[in-house]
Amino acid sequence: MTQDEPTAVEPVETSGDQLRSFLELPSALADEYKMHISPDDGIRVRTVDPPNVVMCDVRILPDAVEYSGDETVVGIPHKNLKRQVGFARKGYADETGDPVTLRPEGRELGIEVDRIDSPVTSDGTLYTVDTDAIREEPNIPELDLPVVAKVDVKDLKEIAERVDGTQKIAHIHFSASEGDFIASYETADGGGEYVFEGLAMDSEGGELGSEAETIDGSLYSTDYIVRCLKAIDAAKVDTVKVHIGNEFPVRFQFQNSRLGIEGSFMVAPRVQQ
Fold it and tell me: Which residues span the domain enclosing 204?
């Protein structure tokens, strides 16, 4: 079923904290995107930025939302949805915030916010986007990236922001050496590196073997890296795993177990001249 069919679907029961945190993720890449809603897959968004540098695949797990209808696809105008959902408070009265009910029906999305311990409720309608007018969703490749590092997203975001703020043109490089995960950078004035000691592991989470003891990695534009890390941090994730390989995209894999959110960003490397 698509949004253009007139048949109403069952309501989707979520919350302010869950939905607002989730919406931080695709906002890093697109103003419009397709939102898939199904009992088997929860709420899912796959999108790519206009230059085709960054792809994301994010979802709210089916066990974390209440929905029993048929699968449907809704064309989301991001800013408008975020504005209406913003009436729902995060973390108010319980861990997940004010209840939010979504009612997709044809080209409209009903949005009801019930503020806990308040006489005020919000019942609005969002005019959605024709799904045929939204660019095709990306096919995100399954890459065999040999090295993974579990890092604190706030540390990595701060590093990327510091590098990005130094020059108009700045690049960050992820690599691994003797069990250390390294974020180094290059600008017009020089460079440097930040070492996460002992955090580089193989793709299964074990110690690096000799064939992956040193990974030269790739060079990335800090603008794209900062954009992804800010979105991940805003979604209040528990963990971030950085997957790297030689001359490959970098993949940020993350999860918010409390809110049932998981997903990944994949950033293409800078083309070497």
Answer: 147-267
